[in-house]
Amino acid sequence: MIELRGNTLITVILLTAGFDFILLGYDQGLFGGILAGERFTEMLGHPTATMQGLVTGIYDIGCAMGAVAAFFFSENFGRKRSIILANIIVIIGAAIQTASYSYGQMVASRIIAGFGVGLSTVAVPILQAETLPSHNRGSLLVVQSALIIIGVAVASWLCFATLYAESSMQWRFPIACQIIFSLIVLILCPFIVETPRWLAKHGQVENARHVIARLLDKSDDDAEVTGQLNEILDTIATEEEDGEPTWNEVFTNATKTRNLHRVLLGMGPYMMNQWSGINSICYYLAYILQRYLGFSANMSLILASVAFTQYAVFSWPPFLYIDRIGRRKSIMISSAGCAVCMAIIAGSLGVKTTKANSACAVAFIFLYMDFFTSGILPVSWSYSAEVQPLRVRNKSTAIGVFSHWASNFVVVMVTPIGLQSIGGNYFWIWAIICAIFVPLIYFFGVETSGRTLEQVDRMFYENPRVLMGLNPDNRAVVRASKADEEERFRALGKLEKDDEKDGVQHLERVHHGDQKV
C-alpha cells in the first residue's frame, strides 16, 4: 500500500471526510425533493402529514442509534475502522431503500442507513480534529461543512431532474445515489491513517510517532515530531492519574478533565445546529414553497434547488475568517442573523399570502441559510471533538452527535404538524431560540481557534469554572502560524524529560504574550 505523507495525506483525509459529509448533506436534501413526486407518494400510500414527518425523520432516529453504538463500541475500533464499518452499513440501508415497495420497508431501511451515518458522524469529526494542524484546523473544517451543503444542493437538483419520470425511477435513482458517496469513502479509507492520539492512548507509541511524522512529512526522529508526541503523551499521563475510565465517568466533573462540563459544551453547537430550525427548511423547502407560498411544484423545486446552490456558495467564506475571529464570534453573529431572518419569515407567512409576502419570505429564507452557514454550521461539526478530553473523546462526541440527531428527528417530525396547525407562526419558535444562542455562547463557550487539543485541555485544568466564557483568556483567539506551531513543537522535543513540565509552561507564557486577540 502506498504510504502518503504531508499535504498529500492531509488532502486524502479531507477527501474521505468530505465525501462522508456530502452524503450527510445529500440525505438531508433528499426527501424534501422526492416527497413532491407522485410516484413516491403513491408507493408510500399517500401518507398524512404525520406519516410524512415520520418517514422523513425516522432516518434521524437511526442516526441517533448509530451515535449510541459509537458511545459503547467505537473507541475499541478506532476512528478509521469505524468509518469503514459505518459506510458499509449505509450501503446496505441505501440498497434496501432503493428496492422498497411499501411504507414500512422504507421506514426500516431509513433506520439502517441512518445508523451508519450516525456512526460515521462520530468518527469523522474526531479523525479530523486529531490529524489536522491546529493553526488552520478551523479553516480546513469549513471545507467539510461546506460539502454538507453541496450534498443538499446535489440532492435537490437531482430530484428536480427526475421529478417527471413516469416510473419509480422518479425516486429510486436519487435514493440509490447515496451508495456512490459511501463507495468513494471506502475506496479512500485504505490511504488514510489512524490518529496518533488513538494509537498513543492504546499503547502503540511508535506507530503514533510514525503517523505524526507522516502528517508533518518529517523523519520519525525529527524534534517537531518528538515534541508533538511528548505533548500527547503528557496529556495521556495526566488523564491516567484518575485510573482507568469508567462508563459513567463521562457524566461527572469529579475528574481533573471535567468531563460532564465539556460534554455539555460539546453538545451545545450540535443542538444549536438543529434548534436553529435549519431542517424545518432544508427538509421541507419545496413543500413549504408549494403548500404555503402558492408556487407550482415545478417552480418550488427550481427555487429550492437555487436556494441550496447559493447556500453551498455562501458556505465557503468562513474558510477566510473562522480561525481569525474564532468559533465564538462566528456562531454569535450567525445566530443573531438567523433570529432576525426567522422573525421576518414568520411575519411574511403569518399574514394573507400575496406576491409581495411570498417574495419577502423567499428572500429571507435565502438569507437565513446564508447566516446559518456562516457560523452555526461549520462550528457545530468541529467544536465538540475539539473541546472534549482525549480520555473520553469518543464517548463524549457520541453524546453530542446523539443530541444532534435526536433533535433533528424532533424538528423534522413536528414541522409538517406545526405548519398545518399554526402556519407561518411556527417560525417564531425558531426566531426566539436562535436569539437565545447568543448569550449562551458568550457566557459558557470557550475559544478553540489556534489551540492544540492539549492546550484546550489546559484551560479546564488551570481555571475551571461554569461560566468559562467570562475568563478573557478563554475567549482569546490564538493566531499561530505554521512556523509558530513548528517552533513550539521543536522546542518541546528538545526539552529534557525532567524539565519538560516547566519548559512547556514557560513556552505557553511566551506564546500567550505574543498572541493577537
From TrEMBL:
GO terms for cellular component: membrane. It is a multi-pass membrane protein. The chain crosses the membrane at residues 7-26, 49-72, 84-101, 107-127, 139-165, 171-193, 299-319, 331-350, 356-377, 398-419, 425-445. Pfam families: Sugar_tr (PF00083). Keywords: Membrane, Sugar transport, Transmembrane, Transmembrane helix, Transport. GO terms for molecular function: carbohydrate:proton symporter activity. Gene3D superfamilies: MFS general substrate transporter like domains (1.20.1250.20). PROSITE patterns: MFS, SUGAR_TRANSPORT_1, SUGAR_TRANSPORT_2. This is Sugar transporter STL1. The lineage of its organism: Eukaryota, Fungi, Dikarya, Ascomycota, Pezizomycotina.
